[in-house]
Amino acid sequence: MLKGKHIILGITGGIAAYKCATLTRLLIKAGAEVQVIMTPNAKQFIQPLTLSTLSGKPVISEFFTANTGQWNSHVDLGLWADALIIAPATASTIGKMANGVADNMLVTTYLSAKAPVFVAPAMDLDMMRHPSTVRNLELLRSYGNHIIEPAEGELASHLIGKGRMEEPENIVKALEAYFATGEDLQGKHVLITAGPTVEKIDPVRYISNFSSGKMGFALAEECASRGAHVTLVAGPVTLKAEHSNIHRVDVTTAQEMHDAVMDALPKSDAVILCAAVADYRVDNVAEKKIKREKDAAPVLHLTPNPDIARAVGQAKRPDQVTVGFALETDNEESNAQGKLERKQLNFIVMNSLRDKNAGFQVDTNKVTIFTDKGEIIKGDCKSKRAVAHDIVDILHKYLSQQ
Ligand code: C5P
């Protein structure tokens, strides 16, 4: 799984740094190329010579090499990497990564990297549970970084609790598991809707909703990074699609979104309907800005928009997999089940506005998935990218059964 992969191993100044000799050795044995970057403090715990010998590459620590003046480009390193592992990750480095404090080569490379990032924290139990560390780790999760949770046990301080860096064997396993799903959507076409739709009232005002598009864009990145060709039909959002396999179609209204989706449907193997589509549009859109009247308030005549999910459900071939979303405020389960059936979806992803850190605008989500086979899969609160990973795992299972 790791054969030929370019791995940056970032080592920071904690006692668990001594385990990085084993970690480097295991990565090399698994066939990876390893570039070690150490923070200045890490060198107090383990000799760079040990790591350069094991990795077969000079260890990088400074922005330039003092005796030759050679510049170490964090941008080139960030592009070279297929994955970054920060192990051990101290509270200080986690804080710098979370807040963009790029005062050393490691954090600078982290900020430049496009590859997945794995963070293996190691610290004393009180530091681990300090609200600052908890918040910073939450921020890293929200950026899509993978946190390899520390184990419980005896710590270097002889205190017992959570904070031991995960064993090198398990860090390698986490990386292998990630790369195992790496290309599982190769050759598939996935159509995704994201964001809100906007329906005009007059040339100045509109009806819309609070959808940011973050969940749909996370799904698009996830599918593309697993080898799929993605058509992303996006309502007006400020987000950027990064992956070159994403073909973005920008729309404004529900009708435009409907037309773009029906256009792309025949060539799609899977459709994920993540957009928050306005259920109604204004029938009597004013040509000029509506002025405030003294007595009578203006009356807006609303007419229903097409239900895109339903139209897809009716038009789809048996080999096409469809996934819907349901954002609910009450009667969550029965509403979601009803939509699953009405829209003929294979599965529906439900989030509740009653859950903190789920739904609109935020970077995290907590979902329950209902499948057409009667399964109910409850998830924890995770970054939207991690939720996207779980959803795409289920999608992949459906696609492999078609
Ligand atoms: O709005 P509602 O709760 O019915 O949305 C459930 C699902 O249907 C979502 O997947 C949403 O993207 C989709 N939908 C749609 N077109 C609509 C309304 C909803 O595709 N007009």
Describe this structure in words.
- The chain is α/β, with parallel strands linked by helices and 402 residues long.
- The protein folds into 2 domains: 6-181, Rossmann fold, CATH 3.40.50; 189-400, Rossmann fold (3-Layer(aba) Sandwich), CATH 3.40.50.10300.
- The chain has 13 helices and 21 strands.
- Helix 4 packs across helix 7 (131-142).
- It binds cytidine-5'-monophosphate.
- Cytidine-5'-monophosphate binds next to helix 11 and strand 16.
Walk me through the topology:
Elements (H helix, E strand, L loop, with lengths): L5 E6 L8 H10 L3 E6 L9 H8 L18 H7 L2 E7 L1 H9 L5 H8 L4 E5 L3 H5 L1 H12 L3 E2 L3 E4 L5 E5 L3 H13 L8 E6 L4 E2 L5 E2 L6 H12 L3 E6 L11 E5 L3 H11 L5 E4 L6 E3 L19 E3 L3 H8 L5 E8 L3 H11 L4 E6 L11 E2 L2 E4 L4 E3 L3 E2 H18 L1
Parallel strand pairs: 1-2, 1-3, 3-4, 4-5, 8-11, 8-13, 11-12, 13-16, 16-17
Antiparallel strand pairs: 6-7, 9-10, 14-15, 17-19, 18-21, 19-20
The structure holds cytidine-5'-monophosphate.
